Amino acid sequence: MVKGGYQTVDVIRVDGDTPNLEEIRGKFIREHTHSEDEVRVFVEGQGLFWFHVQRHNDEVFALLCEQGDLISVPANTKHWFDLGDSPKVCAIRIFTNQASWVPHYTNSGIDQRYRW
Hints:
Helix content is about 5%, strand content about 45%. The protein is mostly beta strands and about 120 residues long.
């Protein structure tokens, strides 16, 4: 936390019984960036992080994150997160400044071509 300048954490838990699940899913599943790193530790469940790497011929790849995994998505990286058809995820989210952690949607539409 000190080395990365991270100052706050929270826990997000999403499953099939989560109120407003589709609204929550909609925030994650559209391609976006963040002005700071996106750091997550997966406590339970799983999900796919999709990455859109333009400098490599618009390549798109996915990374399955499961219980025990740690991921750090660098700031300004185009990505989206897919909960899948049977959502169940609990993750610790680590922030440098939680108040400024907002998605900046690209509206590219590329995320519509890739689903779990």
